[in-house]
Amino acid sequence: MIEKVLNEHKILKSDSLSFKSLYQLIQIINISSAQNFEYYNIECFLIEAYQTIKNHKSKERQLFYHIEILYVISKTLFRNKKFIESLEYLDLMHFYMEENKGKYQKEFDSKYQLLLDLGNIDVLDYRILSFKRNYFKHLKNIKQGKVIIFLQLVEMYYGNPEIIKDPEFHQKAENSFL
Question: Given this model, what pLDDT does residue 134 score?
């Protein structure tokens, strides 16, 4: 795909592009997809572009762009609800943030933390929502109200961990197992 896009726009072969040029191309495509909310359409391109970048001759000297590209890929995967893959690229981002004695740690830490926090929240929210969609009606039909109550308790606790100190919450939890 990357070769096709480069050929369509009469851009030289990707391995002859500078690291910064590849980064700029990724940014242009990313901005374009963001305007139309078409993140799925660029996912393959980004991952292919990253394969080129991983083997680029100047990747050690272009650490800033490398980290930024990993962030764009992670964010795109996150938006496509591919949370596990997103976290994998986020881990790579963190690894490179620590390179060169953490030279870019401060600069990228807020982006990293935000996406990490969103990823962790959304993974659980997504799984709970998916479980409810797939099983809620069935659980009601077979009169498994305790499972539904337990799931509600999990959601309550997840949304507000301080609720664990509330005696009413304890009582509701105890009653759900009777």
Answer: 84
